[in-house]
Amino acid sequence: MGSTRHAARHAARRRPAGGLARTSALMVVGTVVSRATGFIRLGLQVAALGTGLLATTYNNANTVPASLYTLLIGGALNSVLVPQLVRARVQHRDGGLAHEQRLLTMVLCVLAAGTLLAVLAAPEIASIYLPDTPDHHAAFELTVVFARFLLPQILFYGLYAILGQLLNARNRFGAMMWTPVLNNLVLITLFGLYLGLIGSSSGSTSVTPADVRLLGIGTTAGIALQALALIPYLRGCGFSFRPRFDWRGTGLRASISAARWTLLFVAANLAAVTVVTRYATAADSALPHGGVGTSAYTYAQTIWQLPQSVITVSLVTALLPRLSRAVAEQRLDDVRDELSRGLRATGMVIVPAAFFFLAFGPEITALLPGHGPTLPMGRMLQAFALGLIPFSAQYLLLRGFYAFSDTRTPFWAALWISGLDIALAVGCHLLLPARWAVTGMAAAYSLSYLAGLLLTATRLRRRLAGRLDGRRLSRTYLKLVLAAGPAAAASWAVVRSLHLGAPVSAPAGALAMGPLFLASAWLLRLPELRLVRRFAPGARVTSGSRP
């Protein structure tokens, strides 16, 4: 028995090394293409809608489905159900097929009912973000009309999530990374048509009902295509869907119980999003043409999350099933090693990216069409910048709890993060002028995730028998900061001294900072340089090798 367990543990350590590298590389490539097309889409959206009140009405109407995408697909719900699906495939005689069909049927029913209720409640939802007052009635009405077109995305976001979970449970990760490209292509075509037929707009009163239909239907169609494109991949894996309503006494209680805490997790995050959006909309109302509110915040946050989406999400999606199996086999050392390895590998990209955003925020946003480097959006990106480090690390550490099927602890962490974020956002709204209030909220978001990281790490350390590889992680991140900080400052000074124009300043800064950072990392003898090569596309990994 002991020798069998030892062999199983040894095989578990050996088997995934190269597989994780190849899978992560495939996902990274797909995510890079997705984010690259997404950046083109973002540029066309800014060119078409601007950053004023019109863009605010569109983005506010998109807040609920977009928030559900971020919170459900990009994080919690996906992480909760994958361990449940993996266990069902191992423990059930039919490989978990009946369990999956029941779960998919239940999710579709809940999504359909929730989407219908959301569309019917569109005015009430819009009033959360923009009060219906005489001064803002036109903008409020436009937000409601946009919402009726955009809220059906909830169904397709949820469908994309559950179908992707079924694929992830089968170790098929690529489709979820590639199908968003289809959505981006639809939106690129949409905003291109809008620019060609209508031109750029900035006021909420300058659009016609036909314009709203074009934007609303086109946006929802892109999300629908993204979700439905997963169906052929599932069929290729041998999955066939038959609606099953025999839910009672079939083992779904564990999934429902886990989802209960996940929904509370979503509610806590959504509360913070709602407060920030409402105050950011107030800043837009105070300065309608200043670009200091919701849209600038949303665009800056989208750019800020690019490294997280490309690196951390790709690695974590492939890592979670491995963590779940290690927990099921009580291999706590392997859980700890995988989390440490993931944090150190992602840190090699996340830390320099954070300092790059801090140094070149305005220059990066200048790459968007029609906007200069001194826009408030660039300052917001700088305010977000260093928060990328705790944001990414906390995202990865939460997967340790999900591997244990613990969704309660992530909820409490989210509650503390959201509570602190709300308190700081209220302070920014009350104490700062409209020009700087939302920039302060971006900094508040970063600070709240730093506090959340400390809380999450403390709780997870207890779960892992009092050890989290803390010394090695602290040493690695200290060296990364020492390498990235001076490299960012030096590259900023070089670019400023050359007096380069706005469109080339950010690329020039990246070209200067990259070699400086790598040279500094080499001088500091960071072993994580080898770890990154291990996860690079085409890397050859020796079985059983350790970083």
Structure description:
With 547 residues, this protein is mainly α. 80% of the residues lie in helices and 0% in strands. It is built from 24 helices and no strands. α5 (76-91) crosses α9, α6 (97-120) runs antiparallel to α9 and α14 runs parallel beside α20. The model is unreliable at 1-18, 72-76 and 535-547 (pLDDT under 50).
Structural class from helices and strands? Answer: mainly alpha
Residue-averaged pLDDT, rounded?
81
Shape: globular
- Work out the number of β strands: 0
Query: What is the chain-wise order of helices and strands?
Result: HHHHHHHHHHHHHHHHHHHHHHHH
Radius of gyration: 23 Å
Strand content: under 5%
Topology of this structure?
Blueprint: H1 2-14, H2 16-49, H3 53-61, H4 63-73, H5 76-91, H6 97-120, H7 122-129, H8 137-150, H9 153-169, H10 174-178, H11 180-197, H12 209-228, H13 231-236, H14 253-286, H15 294-304, H16 306-328, H17 332-365, H18 376-385, H19 388-403, H20 408-431, H21 434-463, H22 470-498, H23 502-523, H24 528-535
Helix pairs in contact: 2-11, 2-16, 3-8, 4-9, 4-14, 5-9, 5-14, 5-16, 6-9, 7-8, 8-12, 9-12, 11-12, 14-20, 14-21, 15-18, 16-17, 16-19, 17-18, 17-19, 17-22, 17-23, 17-24, 18-21, 19-21, 20-21, 22-23
Transmembrane segments: 20-44, 64-82, 103-122, 142-163, 175-194, 214-234, 261-282, 302-321, 342-360, 380-398, 410-432, 438-457, 477-498, 504-524
Membrane topology: Multi-pass membrane protein
Main location: membrane
